[in-house]
Design a protein that fits this description.
alpha/beta, about 250 residues, about 45% helix
């Protein structure tokens, strides 16, 4: 099916945007899409080599940062705001869906998975909230996952963290709504990034998955980015505390 014509959002032009995990996959596509809208875009990632490539290709501002290190995270966000202006859009995208068995998980691994997949979402929101309050507006977009909704096994720490994104989103929406700050969740299905294709996308698995979707095509990073753009723009100004599943109609 040929690609369509997609929306341009005037409210995103020159708007300061912060994206976590922007060096590859969905995050890199988010960086490209926000830059195409004319947003002043900064992104964080621990992958220095790919981060530099995305920054060079898009003109976005890149900060190498391990999001598990909250002090480093806060410092990077502060420097990004100094250079871009107070961030009025935050996309909490960074995560890793590494597989792991129930029997293998020790407390240290559990804590590291929470730090990788959940904790930084809260601290990023905490860091950008003062600037959004000053502006009287803002949009925080947290990336969830359909994995826990579908009862997927093989990665219990990941699904636990991603299920908590729903509660975090709704709590932040209530706490920040009086200041004009919105908080929503985008819930991707199986998105066919390079990582997914290389690690888990067998021909048989892909065929079965697409057959179970209502729309029998692969969900791609740009599909997630387009939903995110709408939630970031003023077009969704009265939308908050919601979640939006982008999975081709499987769930």
């Amino acid at each position: 099916m040929p690609d369509g014509q997609f929306a341009t959002y005037p409210s995103l032009r020159d708007r300061p945007v912060l994206i976590t995990g922007g060096a590859s996959g969905i995050g890199a596509e988010l960086v490209r899409q926000f830059r195409a809208q004319g947003s002043r875009t900064a992104f964080l990632d621990f992958d220095d080599a790919n981060g530099r490539k995305v920054a060079e290709a898009t003109g976005a501002l890149f900060f190498q940062c391990d999001l598990r290190d909250i002090a480093a995270l806060r410092a990077a966000i502060a420097e990004g705001a100094r250079r871009c202006g107070d961030f009025l859009v935050l996309v909490n995208n960074a995560a890793r869906d590494d597989r792991h068995g129930l029997e293998t998980v020790e407390p240290e691994y559990w804590d590291e998975r929470m730090a990788t997949n959940l904790r930084h979402q809260f601290f990023c929101a905490q860091a950008v909230a003062p600037g959004m309050r000053r502006a009287g507006q803002g949009s925080i977009i947290n990336m969830g996952s359909v994995s826990w909704m579908s009862g997927q096994g093989g990665m219990p720490a990941y699904t636990a963290a991603k299920s908590a994104v729903r509660g975090l989103t709704r709590g932040l929406a209530r706490d920040l709504g009086g200041d004009g700050i919105r908080c929503n969740e985008v819930v991707p299905g199986w998105v066919f990034t390079d990582r997914q294709e290389q690690l888990w996308a067998t021909p048989e698995g892909v065929a079965a998955h697409l057959a179970a979707q209502s729309i029998h095509r692969k969900v791609m990073p740009e599909d997630i980015a387009r939903m995110t753009l709408w939630l970031a723009a003023d077009d969704s100004r009265m939308v908050t505390s919601q979640h939006f599943v982008v999975d081709g109609g499987k769930i």
